[in-house]
């Protein structure tokens, strides 16, 4: 229920249109505003089944390039708007929590589907891949398509831009736009670029909406407010809905009945007076909900054509910042007086040209195999960032300043409680005025990470739900994992180091009062993370953490033009990412376009939590250096044998790290050029899943790199730069299933009570019941501790044929001269191995009997290496006279004979074997 039901109600009322055909009737071109939040899947390239792998960024850029070319051919101009407004969860709890809860349900469904099926999820669970907004902003900037990012109220700013710049229409998918009634309104969810060179969608006749609803035009805003929305939620209208006969809890009322019922109530009101309507709805004008109803009505009126002139500011100037609790710093004013604060120092033509050259160098090899041009628009990028503005910087300033002048914003309800709590522990001054101004202008033009403005203005940040498991079994919470980087960012943008230094200096000189310097300067930011433990009910207070070296002020980082400032910008960024090492800046080891990926992988490796395995690290690097990375057509036709839940979460982990790296890059003055930070230069989700699957089976790194020796050298050098100076501890591979896999040991989890396997008195395997699906019964397989085969992985040249080997491989059991020798401390005679299954001792001689009893497919048992048939005893018990005498009816297998010959392995040897295995990067391949 809510205002979005109005959009659902009019879905069938839309008329199919072709925007290119409409553009032919406009001589000067057809100019539209596109709300990107309603068509993220369309801008991603339409629906593809591999979006859950982490992001098909080359395919996304290919589609946007085709769309931009088609728009230019048909003289259609688009201004794409993104939602960068801080939602302020205390004032908007219901809307934000419901959105995150929906995404969490979809993510859980996707991961569950991947675990059980191993195939891509269906379209109904589509969730934007991590980093999609940043990729779209970078790609649109690359294609010279205008961008606008909202800062306070998304829908109000989008419709305000449409009216102020006299756009011909608006493409969106929100019920609020229907009430605002733009010049023409098209559906963004139905937007589709066809092969027939047409851009198809639906058009809603918004000016006929009062006639369709049978509601007077002057009461349309009241009708929308009674549907429930952000200001006055449906929970506040529960009593009103019950009086109208609407059961809100059961949600059994279809949108048609809801719209018609409320429309009839508004139509039957005696007058259009808001006070009279409040009395009819709540029974008392003094009710707190009556004030919210008035605010909601005014909110919708501000978006209409009549209310727009009253809503926007007359002068367009930015209001003066709040000077409360802000002490003027003479040192900061003196340092920033000689700087050009109109733009970042890295936006110079020299820096832009350097980024363009690095981008061409990164894509020169990929363009040969790519099925779309990468350098088509490169010549236009040399004009700098000014070409990406909508028209002038003043118009963006108006868009940012306009919502702050509005009187009826409801966000003032919950903010004082948070700010008061933060101010009690936070004694750091506000950000400098020139930093706020520059951040606001770059934010509106889509040139800065949207979270930066929220940090500087609200000291709050909202972190969306990611493609991760809520239980965090193998991979920790991604947002909490990257929190140290954000803490460094908080300290940098609020000049914590500078304020502490000045306070210490003033204290030594005795010029400052003791009351102001009792505690060092500290900044605290409220982080809103939706999780199973805390589903958006409260925030987490996170303090800023200064770096271990004297970081310059944010003004010097952003606006300093000296050579030392350039070096300190890069050092500050690398320090945030725990990557301040010499090889990281050596382009022969880490190319410029792979610096973001390298810093993210190094931050993961510096963590105390072992997350990545060695073959997984090489899979990421092989993906970045792959010649197929930019070949979107080849990647789309490529099939992946099996998609794993771990691989999907690792892709989300790295892309989330890239997002945090972009935030740190902007906080440090953007030392990494925006063009070489594009995600399609180093990542592709589908290619990553293929490499992760192959890395577990490849014998060496060259096989993973398709036998391209130059790629192998690049991977080795970049891995060396990432692991420079670290005591590498890779994550342990999963333990292989040991013991008899079948009915005697309880089978898979969920089939019985579980089991425990003991060999020679040592517990080597234990598992219990679970919820995994049953598998078909197989012949018995036994893994003995008496012999530890060399692992078959990408980092060892050995192969192992297992217990069924015929004695010809280096790792075969029968070739004792070539296999691994077991060290013996004593010369005691060999003892037969015993196996305890669920507390019941089974001798090695009874293995044939156990295999016959445990496997229903006794005809499928392989023969031994000499080709002799295994004999099946006639009775359930083996006669004692046949034990150890070497007769033809002896039940000893080749494995048991080899085990007796080698002797048991003591605990000391077992630990040595495990240490040799750990760090190899892969588990022994089970038979």
From TrEMBL:
It comes from the Eukaryota. Residues 312-354, 796-927 are annotated as: Disordered. Gene3D superfamilies: 5'-nuclease (3.40.50.1010). One of its GO terms (cellular component) is nucleus. InterPro entries: Coact_PPARg, PIN-like_dom_sf. Residues 334-347 have a biased composition (Polar residues). Residues 905-919 have a biased composition (Basic and acidic residues). Residues 855-865 have a biased composition (Acidic residues). Residues 315-325, 874-890 have a biased composition (Basic residues). PANTHER family: ASTEROID DOMAIN-CONTAINING PROTEIN, CONSTITUTIVE COACTIVATOR OF PEROXISOME PROLIFERATOR-ACTIVATED RECEPTOR GAMMA. Belongs to the constitutive coactivator of PPAR-gamma family. This is Constitutive coactivator of PPAR-gamma-like protein 1. It comes from Pieris macdunnoughi. The lineage of its organism: Eukaryota, Metazoa, Ecdysozoa, Arthropoda, Hexapoda.
């Amino acid at each position: 229920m809510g205002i979005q039901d109005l959009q659902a109600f009019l879905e069938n009322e839309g008329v199919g249109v072709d925007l290119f055909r409409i553009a032919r009737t406009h001589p000067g071109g057809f100019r539209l505003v596109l709300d990107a939040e309603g068509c993220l899947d369309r801008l991603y390239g339409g629906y593809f089944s591999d979006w859950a792998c982490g992001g098909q960024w080359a395919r996304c850029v290919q589609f946007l390039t085709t769309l931009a070319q088609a728009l230019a051919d048909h003289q259609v101009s688009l201004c794409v708007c993104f939602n960068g407004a801080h939602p302020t969860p205390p004032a908007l709890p219901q809307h934000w929590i419901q959105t995150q809860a929906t995404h969490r349900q979809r993510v859980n469904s996707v991961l569950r589907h991947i675990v059980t099926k191993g195939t891509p999820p269906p379209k109904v669970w589509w969730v934007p891949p991590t980093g999609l907004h940043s990729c779209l902003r970078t790609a649109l900037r690359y294609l010279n398509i205008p961008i606008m990012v909202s800062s306070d109220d998304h829908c109000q700013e989008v419709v305000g831009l449409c009216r102020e710049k006299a756009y011909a229409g608006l493409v969106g998918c929100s019920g609020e736009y229907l009430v605002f009634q733009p010049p023409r309104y098209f559906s963004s969810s139905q937007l589709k670029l066809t092969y027939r060179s047409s851009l198809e969608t639906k058009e809603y006749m918004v000016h006929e909406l009062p006639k369709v609803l049978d509601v007077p035009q002057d009461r349309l805003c009241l009708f929308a407010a009674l549907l429930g929305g952000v200001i006055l939620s449906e929970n506040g209208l529960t009593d009103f809905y019950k009086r109208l006969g609407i059961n809100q809890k059961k949600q059994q009322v279809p949108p048609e009945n809801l719209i018609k019922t409320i429309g009839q109530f508004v139509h039957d009101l005696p007058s259009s007076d808001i006070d009279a309507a409040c009395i009819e709805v709540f029974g008392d004008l003094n009710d707190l909900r009556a004030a919210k109803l008035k605010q909601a009505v005014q909110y919708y009126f501000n978006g209409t054509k009549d209310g727009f002139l009253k809503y926007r500011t007359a002068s367009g100037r930015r209001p003066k910042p709040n000077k409360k609790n802000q002490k003027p710093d003479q040192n900061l004013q003196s340092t920033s007086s000689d700087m050009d604060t109109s733009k970042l120092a890295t936006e110079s033509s020299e820096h832009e040209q350097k980024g363009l050259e690095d981008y061409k160098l990164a894509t020169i090899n990929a363009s040969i195999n790519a099925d779309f041009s990468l350098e088509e628009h490169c010549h236009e990028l040399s004009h700098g960032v000014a070409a990406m503005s909508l028209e002038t910087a003043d118009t963006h300033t108006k868009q940012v300043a306009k919502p702050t002048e509005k009187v009826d914003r409801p966000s003032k309800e919950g903010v004082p409680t948070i700010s008061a709590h933060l101010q009690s522990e936070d004694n750091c001054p506000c950000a400098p005025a020139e930093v706020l101004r520059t951040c606001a202008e770059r934010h509106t033009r889509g040139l800065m990470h949207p979270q930066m403005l929220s940090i500087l203005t609200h000291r709050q940040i909202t972190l969306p739900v990611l493609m991760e498991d809520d239980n965090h079994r193998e991979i920790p919470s991604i947002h909490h994992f990257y929190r140290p980087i954000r803490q460094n960012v908080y300290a940098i943008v609020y000049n914590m180091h500078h304020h502490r230094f000045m306070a210490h200096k003033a204290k030594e000189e005795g010029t400052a009062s003791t009351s102001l310097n009792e505690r060092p300067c500290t900044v605290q930011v409220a982080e809103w993370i939706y999780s199973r433990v805390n589903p958006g009910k409260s925030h987490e207070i996170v303090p800023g953490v200064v770096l271990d070296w004297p970081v310059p002020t944010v003004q010097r980082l952003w606006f300093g033009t000296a050579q030392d400032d350039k070096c300190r910008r890069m050092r500050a960024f690398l320090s945030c990412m725990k990557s301040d090492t010499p090889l990281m800046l050596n382009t022969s080891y880490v190319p410029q376009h792979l610096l973001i990926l390298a810093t993210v992988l190094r931050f993961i490796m510096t963590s105390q939590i072992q997350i990545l395995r060695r073959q997984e690290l090489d899979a990421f690097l092989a993906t970045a250096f792959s010649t197929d990375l930019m070949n979107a057509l080849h990647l789309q036709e490529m099939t992946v044998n099996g998609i794993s839940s771990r691989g999907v979460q690792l892709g989300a982990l790295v892309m989330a790290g890239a997002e945090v790296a972009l935030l740190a890059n902007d906080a440090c003055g953007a030392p990494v050029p925006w063009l070489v930070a594009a995600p399609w230069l180093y990542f592709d989700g589908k290619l990553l899943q293929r490499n992760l699957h192959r890395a577990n089976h490849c014998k060496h790194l060259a096989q993973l790199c398709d036998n391209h020796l130059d790629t192998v050298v690049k991977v080795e050098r970049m891995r060396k730069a990432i692991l420079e100076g670290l005591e590498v501890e890779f994550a342990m591979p999963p333990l292989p299933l040991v013991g008899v896999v079948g009915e005697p040991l309880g089978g898979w989890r969920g089939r019985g009570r579980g089991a425990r396997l003991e060999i020679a008195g040592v517990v080597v395997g234990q598992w219990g019941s679970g919820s995994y699906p049953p598998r078909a019964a197989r012949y018995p397989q036994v893994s003995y501790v008496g012999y530890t085969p060399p692992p078959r992985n990408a980092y060892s040249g050995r192969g192992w044929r297992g217990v069924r080997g015929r004695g010809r491989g280096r790792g075969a059991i029968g070739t004792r001269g070539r296999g691994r020798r077991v060290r013996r401390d004593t010369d005691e005679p060999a003892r037969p191995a015993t196996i305890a299954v669920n507390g019941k001792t089974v001798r090695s001689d009874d293995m044939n009997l156990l295999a016959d009893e445990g496997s229903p497919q006794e005809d499928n048992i392989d023969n031994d290496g000499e080709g002799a048939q295994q004999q099946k005893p006639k009775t359930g018990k083996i006669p004692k006279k046949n034990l150890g005498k070497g007769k033809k009816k002896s039940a000893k297998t080749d494995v048991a004979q080899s085990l007796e010959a080698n002797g048991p392995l003591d605990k000391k040897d077992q630990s040595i074997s495990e240490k040799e295995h750990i760090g190899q990067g892969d588990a022994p391949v089970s038979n």
